Amino acid sequence: MSDWKVSLYRPEIGAAEREAVADVLRSGWLSTGPVTQDFEARYAAALGVDDAVAVANGTAALHLAVLALGLGPGDEVVLPSLNFVSAAAMVALSGATPVFAEVSGAHDLSLDPADVAARITSRTRAVVAMHYGGYAADLAALSELARAHGLVLIEDAAHAPATTTAQGVLGTVGDIGCYSFFATKNLAVGEGGMVVARDPDIRARIRRLRSHALTVSAQDRHRGGPSTYDVDTLGLNYRPTEIACALGRVQLDALAAKGKRRQEAVRQYRERLADLPGITLPFADRPVEESAHHLFPVVLPEGLDRDVVQDRLKAAGIQSGVHYPPTHLFTAYRERYGLGPGSLPVTENVTGRQLSLPLYAGIGDRDVRLVVEAVRAAWQPAP
């Protein structure tokens, strides 16, 4: 359907974004250059860190983190199965083994620190904490686990750009923070991402690895620096474009205002859906100010068929989504690591009942009302 009354997500691209792109086209410099450097500086300032490295996308951010840490065969990384597949894929492609851990439950879709602790072995090198929907994982507990076992804590902050919580700015509390600026994200440039790292040596390694590990950048050569270069390790082309970073600067400037609009929609959803029989609203006890609100997830009660609910919403013109199918049950992971149903009972139970409702910066009161009315009408047993 292309004529949804309320779509799951709707990008906001205006005159400022169009003019920013036009400026780049007029400049004649299309790949990583001065606009990228300025976006990196502005994003780092928004996080309160020294520096940030812009990359081609969020998956590249995760891959560069894995590469910079030197993870490989024999190493294990503990991470949630309830996440987009990219995090596990980047671990697996390095030769390391993704070890999937449970989420806390329907009320909290973040990694369960107690289950993480139970899965740590002598081969564990890192833990990936995913800030689901823009809500903070339990960074205090996970940081303590990482310190106690000498592990690296990677924050998958794809859903949480420049998000301040009581635990700190998400992505900056652990050792490495990875962000996504995909087309559906709160800060959307089409394809883009960012990496921050506490250790300046790790950060420098990530910056070099994103551009073939060249010892002299193209921009330095253009400015009259050395015309040749060396390559002393294996790198990749994970550079962003100037166009993406120009969009990123505009989106970053508007992020706080758009975040407030998301907060208001979440307040309304919480107030108007809380009385539905058997519904769970994950993170409902969290202050709305302490989340990026990338998603608005609900968990259906046992016995209410998600497919039926989604079909009823679709008939009413309301788009919904599922975030996410559990990674450990995908064919590649079942076959490669011997996983299957029953491996993560809490995660499997929750993911079978999870549903995402429309949420985006431009969602209006009328849109929320239409969604709520459709959900309440759909909240009936199948005939």
SSE layout and pairing:
Elements (H helix, E strand, L loop, with lengths): L14 H13 L6 H14 L5 E3 L2 H12 L6 E5 L5 H8 L3 E5 L1 E3 L2 E4 L1 H7 L4 E7 L8 H11 L2 E5 L7 E2 L2 E2 L6 E5 L12 E5 L2 H10 L8 H5 L19 H32 L22 E4 L6 H10 L15 H7 L7 H7 L2 E4 L7 H14 L5
Parallel strand pairs: 2-3, 2-6, 6-7, 7-10
Antiparallel strand pairs: 1-11, 4-5, 8-9, 10-11, 12-13
Helix pairs in contact: 1-9, 2-9, 3-4, 3-7, 9-13, 10-13
Mean pLDDT: 95
Q: What CATH first level of the largest domain would be assigned?
A: Alpha Beta
Measure the end-to-end span. 25 Å
What's the Cα radius of gyration?
Answer: 21 Å
Give me the CATH fold name of the largest domain: Aspartate Aminotransferase, domain 2
Return the CATH architecture of the largest domain.
3-Layer(aba) Sandwich
What is the H/E order? HHEHEHEEEHEHEEEEEHHHEHHHEH
* Biggest sheet architecture: 7 strands, mixed
* General form: globular
Q: Order of strands side by side in the largest beta sheet?
A: 1-11-10-7-6-2-3
Q: Strand tally, please?
A: 13
Helix/sheet category:
alpha/beta
Helical content class:
25-40%
Q: So how many helices? A: 13
Poorly predicted sequence stretches spanning 5 or more consecutive residues: none
β content, as a range?
A: 5-15%
Number of domains: 2
Q: CATH superfamily name of the largest domain?
A: Type I PLP-dependent aspartate aminotransferase-like (Major domain)
